[in-house]
């Protein structure tokens, strides 16, 4: 006679994981959450004050950056990454994050590992004022290798219909403002892993994985603080595809080009190291964030004030380009 445990699924370890997770998730719950973890579904009521509330959703994962977490046995930062990838995306349309759900899959569940991942998720939720209202941990022996995990997330935010940011009022001469990234973030790691086959090699006095596992920066709070003060015409989260693929996503009108001056901000050392290791420089802006994790499009007369305010909030913000009529996409100068 076989039990479920004999097949490789340890129910008791699952119970232990849930108990560990609950204490972290509880810290993220806002007053709009109507129930706690453990129900079949999470319930959140809409906040008051919205005339025509629109729900804005996004989902993403962490990708092959996870392999560095497996090798270094450092699991919490990838949880932050998972939240950041989702909430920064919905932020691009002016949405304030409301709640988040996660999905973790593994070959053999280790409660200490899964709870460490979710601790990172909760840290990301706290940083973005989102409530972790539920999730799923799937133990699939024989499908995932033991010791390996995958994680994905789903975020829902809210914005008034007449305050949705969609790029429709972007015009020639508008200014592009870049906010500094915290490093490589969570994209391009299929290449990064080839460039750094030994993640324990030394870099600036410590093992390189510590730099590479720096979590994706969450831009929610500083950006939301600007929306009622300035006309933010468009926003872009610089993720997979770098500048080339993501910046044009802020445009609604045809025949507009984002002109970006590559020397308008300091390129972080880690990207120079990637080039030294063999990354093709010409393709870098189509793969990595290159030091700019988030971008705003504003009126020219507002640009300096927006930059000053972002810097006062602890961000590193730079005027990195402008919009011109004609063509489509991105022009790097």
From TrEMBL:
GO terms for molecular function: ATP binding; phosphoribosylamine-glycine ligase activity; phosphoribosylformylglycinamidine cyclo-ligase activity. Transmembrane segments: none annotated. Pathway: Purine metabolism; IMP biosynthesis via de novo pathway; 5-amino-1-(5-phospho-D-ribosyl)imidazole from N(2)-formyl-N(1)-(5-phospho-D-ribosyl)glycinamide: step 2/2. InterPro entries: PurM-like_C_dom, PurM-like_C_sf, PurM-like_N, PurM-like_N_sf, PurM_cligase. It holds the Pfam family AIRS. Its EC number is 6.3.3.1. It is an enzyme of class 6 (ligase). Residues 54-159 form the PurM-like N-terminal domain. One of its GO terms (cellular component) is cytosol. Residues 172-329 form the PurM-like C-terminal domain. It is found in: Cytoplasm. GO terms for biological process: 'de novo' IMP biosynthetic process; adenine biosynthetic process. The keyword Cytoplasm applies. Its main location: cytoplasm. Keywords: ATP-binding, Cytoplasm, Ligase, Nucleotide-binding, Purine biosynthesis. The keyword Cytoplasm applies. Belongs to the AIR synthase family. This is Phosphoribosylformylglycinamidine cyclo-ligase. It comes from Clostridium intestinale URNW.
């Amino acid at each position: 006679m076989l039990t479920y445990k004999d097949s490789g699924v340890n129910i008791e370890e699952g119970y232990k994981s849930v108990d560990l997770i609950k204490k972290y998730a509880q810290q993220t719950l806002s007053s709009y959450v109507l129930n706690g973890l453990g129900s079949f579904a999470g319930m959140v009521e809409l906040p008051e004050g919205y005339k025509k509330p629109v729900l804005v959703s996004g989902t993403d994962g962490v990708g092959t950056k996870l392999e560095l977490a497996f090798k270094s046995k450092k699991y919490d930062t990838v949880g932050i990454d998972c939240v950041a990838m989702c909430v920064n995306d919905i932020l691009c349309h002016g949405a304030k994050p409301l709640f988040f759900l996660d999905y973790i899959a593994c070959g053999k569940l280790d409660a200490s590992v899964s709870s460490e991942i979710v601790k990172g998720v909760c840290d990301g939720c706290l940083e973005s004022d989102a409530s972790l209202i539920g999730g799923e941990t799937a133990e699939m022996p024989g499908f995932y290798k033991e010791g390996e995990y995958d994680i994905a997330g789903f975020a829902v935010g809210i914005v008034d219909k007449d305050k949705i940011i969609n790029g429709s009022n972007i015009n020639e001469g508008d200014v592009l403002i870049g906010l500094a990234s915290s490093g490589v973030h969570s994209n391009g790691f299929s290449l990064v892993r080839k460039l750094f086959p030994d993640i324990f090699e030394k870099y600036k006095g410590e093992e390189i994985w510590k730099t590479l596992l720096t979590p994706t920066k969450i831009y929610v709070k500083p950006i939301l603080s600007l929306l009622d003060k300035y006309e933010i015409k468009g926003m872009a989260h610089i993720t997979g595809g770098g500048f080339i693929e993501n910046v044009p996503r802020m445009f609604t009108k045809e025949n507009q080009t984002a002109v970006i001056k590559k020397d308008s901000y300091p390129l972080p050392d880690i990207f120079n190291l990637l080039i030294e290791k063999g990354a093709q420089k010409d393709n870098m802006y189509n793969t990595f964030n290159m030091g700019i994790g988030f971008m705003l499009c504003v009126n020219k007369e507002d640009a300096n004030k927006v930059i000053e305010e972002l810097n006062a909030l602890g961000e590193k913000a730079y005027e990195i380009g402008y919009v011109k009529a004609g063509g489509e996409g991105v022009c790097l100068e």
